[in-house]
Amino acid sequence: MDATSHRSHDKTLWYLLTATRGGPNRARIVRALAERPRNANRLADELGVGYKTVRHHLDTLQEHGVVEAGGDDYGKLYFVTDRVEREWDTFERIAEEIDG
Amino acid sequence: METTIMLASALSGVNLLLLGAVTAVWVRNYRTFGTPLIAGLIAFGAVLLVENAVAIYFFFSMESLYSGDPHVQQAVLVMRALQAVALGVLAYVTVR
User: Fold this and answer.
1) B42 touching A, CB under 8 A?
2) One Pfam family, short name please (chain B) (predicted)?
3) CB-CB: which of A21, A22, A97 is closest to B34?
4) What is the predicted ipTM?
5) Beta bridge partners of residue A39, listed in sequence order
6) Of all helices (H) and strands (E), which one includes residue A67?
7) Smallest CA–CA separation between B18 and chain A, in Å?
């Protein structure tokens, strides 16, 4: 990936996590998954967000290459992608602002 | 009021609703994140809100400006419609 596409993905990540209605919850999901991989059920419990909402956010984050899934279909575990790890500074600045 | 200008007013009303929805999301998120990106989006939303309110004011109070020329009315309607499409797309990606 060249520097330009890296920067544009950076902007997409900012928009997705800070400027959309579900942004703050998506940021909390990414932060939880960076700590350690979890499945959707677990995330819903820990973040106090409905299962369907978590599923929707995970699908959106997956579409944008922010998280990826592993394991079998039912208890699928979600991980943050290498891409996000490379942009960790950006993400940390976003995550610092949200609590819980 | 001419039908074309009435439709244009209605579209400006739609634009106001869409802008209200996305700007409300940005204001809420600004309280959480407080970043320049969202401040810029709020400024963008605020200016377009004013622009649409002014447009509606013009359509109602200065009808004579438009009444003589159907081409002007059509142009006005097309531009209102294009803005409604643009804001519809932006609102969709912002609330989903």
Assistant:
1) no
2) DUF8036
3) A97
4) 0.80
5) A77
6) strand A67-70
7) 14
- For residues A11 and B82, what is the distance between their CA atoms, to the nearest angstrom? 25
Per-residue confidence (pLDDT) for residue B68, from 0 to 100: 77
Inter-chain contact A97–B33, Cβ cutoff 8 Å?
yes
Report pLDDT digits (tens) over A17-70.
999 999 999 999 999 999 999 999 999 999 999 999 999 999 999 999 999 998
**CB A66 within 8 Å of CB A84:** yes
From the CB of residue B72, how many other CB atoms can be counted at a distance below 10 Å? 14
Cα B71 to Cα B84: distance, rounded to the nearest angstrom = 20
Nearest Cα neighbor of B30 from A61, A54, A24 is: A24
Q: Which residue has the tokens 């649409």?
A: B52
Q: Identity (one letter) of the amino acid at B59? A: F
Q: Which class for B64: exposed (0-12), middle (13-18), buried (19 or more C-beta within 10 A)?
A: exposed
**pLDDT of amino acid A1:** 45
pLDDT digits (tens, 9 = 90+) for A54-65: 999 999 999 999
Q: Give the mean pLDDT of A60-86.
A: 88
Model-level pTM?
0.85
Q: Which residue has the tokens 């995550």?
A: A95
| CB-CB neighbours of A60 under 10 Å | 17
Smallest CA–CA separation between A42 and chain B, in Å? 22
Q: Is A8 on the interface with B (CB under 8 A)?
A: no
Question: CA-CA distance, A18 to A89, in Å (whole number)?
Answer: 15
